Amino acid sequence: MKLKKIGFALMSLVLILTMIPAMTSAASKLSIVVEVNGDRVSFPDAKPFMDKSNRVQVPVRFVSEALGAEVGWNSKSKQVTVQLGEDTTVLTMGKKAYTVNGQTKQMDTVAQQKQNRTFVPLRFVSEALGAKVIWHKDLYSVEILTGLAAVHEDNKEEIKKETSTTETPKYIVDSWGRKRRIEGETQKLTAEGFSFFNSYKSGLGVSYESVNGKDLMFLQSTIHFDRDGVDYNQQVKDLDELLRQKIDTETVDKIMKYVKQKTKREDELEAKEFSDKTYGIQVESSYWDNIYISIWYK
């Protein structure tokens, strides 16, 4: 019985050992996928590969054809020059030091020649040209973004950093790409001495526009009737609190008295102006419309 067990164990070990080279070979044959702004790049002959430093190397021809840069080769100095617009990058075969616009930088890998082809580290060259490089480990693929696509990706990362902290985020981005402050989800915005949310739980909306000069509206509040779930009385309270931050008490009392004359959507408020020493304020609402309260510097 013991001999049978030993024989079975040895057989299993032999099978495992024979499978390892096949598994390694299969992994080494995986093709690295490269996409530029969503378009997959074809490599008909020289294929990208992962070097010993775990950096993706691509044929230098890719840099000129896919990224639109001009590529030069100096056989004596064994240097590759990559130029796009006013940006120039120079790499030397086998050297970690390279230059970007004359400034020396260091890589953790080197440009190299393989099968009579020149290969360069994709990330360092792409980023030197202003591109964004994203490595997808699970997909064994590289995503390269250029121009506005790269800028958009950087903005998304910046927003993600600001909104991923354990503290209340400063703002969120709505479906239109606008940065908004929402009560209960973000911090208040402070502008022109007023502190407010763009959207209150009650339904009150506040929009801000930076201005430089008099007679220009910089803040507009909206009491909504056209949305489900809005609380008219709470909107009035939120508006009152907002106005009293900077506008004198007597003027706010007059404004709120006028605002409260419209309690239903079908009521109307003719455009009426109020003012204190600093601000001009207008209140108006048409039939079947919201109430708009506009504030400007006198």
Automatic annotation (TrEMBL):
- State the organism's lineage: Bacteria, Bacillati, Bacillota, Bacilli, Bacillales
Signal peptide start-end = 1-26
Q: Which residues form the Copper amine oxidase-like N-terminal domain?
A: 36-144
Q: Which UniProt keywords apply?
A: Signal
Q: Which organism is it from?
A: Paenibacillus motobuensis
- Residue stretches spanning the membrane: none
Pfam hit, one: Cu_amine_oxidN1
- The entry's protein name is Copper amine oxidase-like N-terminal domain-containing protein
Q: What InterPro entries does this protein map onto?
A: Cu_amine_oxidase-like_N, Mao_N_sf
